[in-house]
Design goal:
Number of strands: 13
Shape: flat
CATH class of the largest domain: Mainly Beta
Number of helices: 7
Helix content: 25-40%
CATH superfamily of the largest domain: Macroglobulin (MG2) domain
Largest sheet: 6 strands, mixed
Number of domains: 2
Structural class: alpha+beta
Length: 264
């Protein structure tokens, strides 16, 4: 009888382990929320760049991990997708000329990143690559048939972020995410004077012991403002009236100048 029960007990044990293995791994309870110091930034003729403050909070954080400082946050601000052309210049007979180019599509027009620590101390390069997080992990999509070979594509792809950083449109700042308390944090992102207008997306990534947990996002609108923008908008939306007014203004200015500077 006991020998007959052994196979049955083993079958129940195997079935129990299989059912336990099929149970989903409990999801992390931590969550993250962010907000911006402003939802809209106006660009005028005197705009010289600014800093954007991102405030955030952790919910359901583990007190022990908090005390040990093993939570990390990476915050990015990604500009609207645009096309970008990378050109190579060679010197012929003392003159620099464009010899080859590769066009990329739907890449972020600007990219600002701030983190609690150096990226290499937060998690592995593999996870950053999976999240497309960091200047060197952005997917730079070339236009179809826009390059001669895979070797040239790699060369131009490597050059693209360098050019963006030279234009101050791509930047990464280590240590600019600071915890104000055990659950509240603040990030400072740098926006250059040539920041593109349009809808920007701010994202915050939460890590625990090198493991990615959660992501939260919100949007920022950057718009042109001031007299110059109103004139530009009028010229585009009411081109006929704008042209007639420009001609009228030129005639009046010429007539007034003739009256002022006539010699008789």
């Amino acid at each position: 009888m006991r020998l007959a029960m052994i196979p049955l007990m083993m079958l129940c044990l195997v079935a129990g382990r299989a059912a336990q293995a099929q149970q989903p791994v409990p999801a992390s309870k931590e969550t993250i929320e962010i907000g911006l110091s402003t939802d809209t930034i106006s660009i005028t003729s005197g705009f010289r760049g600014t800093d954007l403050t991102v405030f955030g909070a952790l919910d359901n954080a583990d007190p022990l991990i908090q005390r040990q400082g093993r939570y990390d946050v990476v915050v990015i601000l990604e500009g609207p997708p645009r096309n970008f052309v990378v050109r190579r210049k060679d010197r012929y007979f003392g003159i620099w000329v464009n010899t080859e180019s590769v066009s990329f599509q739907n890449i972020p027009a600007s990219y600002s990143l701030a983190s609690t620590r150096s990226l290499q101390d937060i998690t592995t390069p593999k996870i950053f690559a999976q999240l497309s997080l960091g200047v060197n992990n952005i997917y730079y999509e070339p236009m179809p048939e826009g390059f001669d070979s895979s070797a040239s594509l790699r060369e131009f792809t490597k050059e693209l972020p360098r050019l963006k950083q030279k234009q101050l449109l791509y930047n990464q700042r280590v240590g600019d995410v600071q915890f104000l308390s055990s659950t509240l944090f603040r990030a400072t992102l740098s926006l250059p004077a040539n920041v593109p207008v349009g809808k920007h997306v701010a994202r915050a990534y939460l890590f625990r012991n090198g493991e990615f947990l959660r992501e939260s996002s919100t949007s920022l609108n950057i718009v042109k403002a001031g007299l110059e923008f109103r004139i530009f908008r009028a010229a585009n939306q009411h081109s006929l009236l704008y042209g007639l007014f420009a001609v009228f203004l030129a005639v009046v200015t010429g007539w007034a100048g003739r009256l002022v500077f006539r010699k008789d």
